[in-house]
Design goal:
The chain has a domain of 175 residues. It is 16% helix and 26% strand. The protein contains 7 helices and 23 strands. The strands form 6 sheets. Strands 1, 3, 4, 5, 6, 8, 9, 11 and 16 form a 9-stranded mixed β-sheet that branches. Strands 17, 18, 19, 20 and 22 form a 5-stranded mixed β-sheet that branches. The chain is globular. It starts with 6 loop residues before the first strand and ends in a 12-residue tail after the last helix.
């Protein structure tokens, strides 16, 4: 007998691509089809600055999934952006909230980014050299369209009772995932959150309403030379999932700090090719990196991930859902990165609180409990060991690089549900979140604006510390980990890192 549905859900997908005709866009369109004019260009975010978009391969989306049990009603939104913000002045989730229809009864709205490195600059760091890359009119359009997606998905007329299936897999169960995750320049430790997690919502009659996919690596397979707007491999994941199941696929990235997609880091296999689910793509013999990048290779990655999604859902039983609870916790930390401070002063970054002399990071943590499933959010690119346990997954290759800071508490043991989902870059993108014991340079040593700090074991081949240069603050890891401990009902006072 099918499980009696206690859950109602709605879903909507609204394109955000700044290209071609769109009745909701009232601004200029260039001859190429890209939006803007001579003074307003679409710059692609990720990697280095000064990468203008020249066209479109596939759409950038806002995909909203609304869940309701009783009077609790939550919207989860995935954006194909490098990041977005709760409050960035003239744009962000706070502006979206003003455009939601009254009477929808939403308890909470949680907006996340996939961290796509092939979409428009929504932060401001990737324009022409030393210039803000954001296009204000476009970002105001984005807010309207995010609200449109939520309004559509949350409309009671568009919601239906659903049954739920959960699935979990990893490279051991789904070999198509083998080797797809790599650490940046092989930065130790060689640890990943390997789980791929899936939730499928099924309408009466057995058709799929939506499939939520949660995996943990950077969507940047096309790297820095691509100038076509695209949502990268999540596009192909969603396309394959929708082709097989119907409904709408919604992709969320998880704890992807220092975790990149295959090819972003040089291969150490000793072979002259990289293998993506049995398909071979040649490597450049000098760099040991892909000899050619393109959408065929990106599709192979997306298809490999989609194959794992299908395996995760194979032979799983439906779960009864009769509870939906959501909690949140405000957290704050000083903004200590001198590069980010300079961009705040230059008005390129507008999402930080405080004042010019004492800028700070203000954000929110969320815990969503849906029947047997826990969802937590992370406001940035959190190293996976911060969530799974730094002490259990710390570096062992170079004790002399450790600065003596205590290890952040493990968060995963506090998740009591049968299934665990980690929604990264929600509701903010605050950069990398590095465990304090390995944060280099650690105060009183100062971070240089000129380059990356060297590791104490550089002579052994350990890379320089890139991630710290794109971290808001060295204090972020304990603030997030200890905040999650509190949010999940634990006692932060038990942990030295939380004192």
């Amino acid at each position: 007998m099918p499980v009696v549905a206690q859950l109602r859900a709605g879903v909507a997908a609204v394109p955000l691509t700044p290209f071609g005709e769109n009745p909701d866009w009232k601004g200029p369109v260039t001859e190429s089809g890209l939006w803007g004019d001579a003074d307003h260009r679409i710059w692609i975010a990720g990697f280095g600055s000064n990468r203008p978009a020249l066209g479109k391969h596939d759409d950038i989306w806002a995909r909203a999934l609304v869940l309701q049990v009783g009077k609790t009603k939550v919207a989860l939104v995935a954006l194909d952006f490098i990041g977005y913000y709760q409050n960035a002045g003239y744009y962000g989730v706070n502006q979206v909230m003003k455009q939601l229809k009254p009477g929808l009864g939403l308890t909470e709205v949680i907006v996340a980014s996939t961290h796509n490195h092939q979409g428009p600059d929504t932060i401001g760091m990737w324009g022409a050299a030393n210039k803000d890359g954001k296009y204000a009119d476009y970002l105001k359009f984005v807010d309207r369209e995010i609200a449109k997606a939520i309004n559509t998905a949350a409309d009671p007329a568009n919601m239906s009772e659903v049954r739920v299936r959960f699935g979990v897999t990893n490279p051991q169960r789904s070999p198509s995932l083998l080797g797809l995750q790599v650490r940046t320049s092989h930065r130790p430790p060689d640890f990943f959150d390997e789980e791929l997690r899936v939730m499928q919502l099924i309408k009466p009659g057995g058709l799929s309403l939506a499939t939520l996919i949660n995996w943990n690596t950077h969507p940047e397979s096309l790297e820095s030379k691509n100038q076509q707007l695209t949502s990268d491999f999540p596009h192909f994941v969603r396309d394959a999932v929708e082709s097989k199941f119907g409904g709408t696929a919604v992709y969320f990235s998880g704890d992807l700090g220092a975790v990149e997609i295959i090819g972003d880091t040089f291969s150490t296999t000793g072979k002259d090719y990289e293998s993506i689910d049995g398909r071979h793509f040649p490597l450049d013999l000098k760099s040991n990196r892909p000899a050619a990048l393109g959408f065929e290779r990106t599709k192979a990655i997306g298809d490999a991930v989609a194959k794992a999604v299908f395996q995760a859902l194979a032979n799983v039983k439906e779960e009864k859902i009769d509870t939906l609870n959501v909690k949140s916790l405000k957290i704050t930390a000083p903004l200590t990165n001198p590069g980010f401070q300079a961009m705040v002063h230059a008005k390129m970054l507008s999402n930080y609180g405080g004042d010019d002399e004492h800028p700070r990071v203000d954000t929110t943590l969320y815990h969503l409990q849906l029947g047997p499933a826990d969802f937590i959010t992370l406001p940035g690119e959190v190293f996976p060991e911060v969530i799974w346990g730094v002490e259990a997954h710390k570096r062992t290759d170079c004790p002399e690089n450790a600065n003596g800071r205590p290890y952040e508490p493990a968060v995963m043991p506090l998740l009591k549900g049968k299934y665990h989902f980690i929604i990264g870059l929600a509701p903010d993108e605050l950069g990398y979140v590095v465990p304090q014991y390995d944060f280099t340079p650690f105060p009183p040593k100062e971070m240089s604006l000129q380059g990356r700090a060297q590791d104490a074991c550089k002579s052994k081949g350990v890379p320089d510390h890139y991630h710290e240069t794109n971290s808001s603050t060295y204090k972020m890891a304990p603030v997030i980990a200890c905040g999650l401990v509190q949010l999940l009902g634990g006692d932060p006072g038990k942990y030295e890192a939380c004192k």
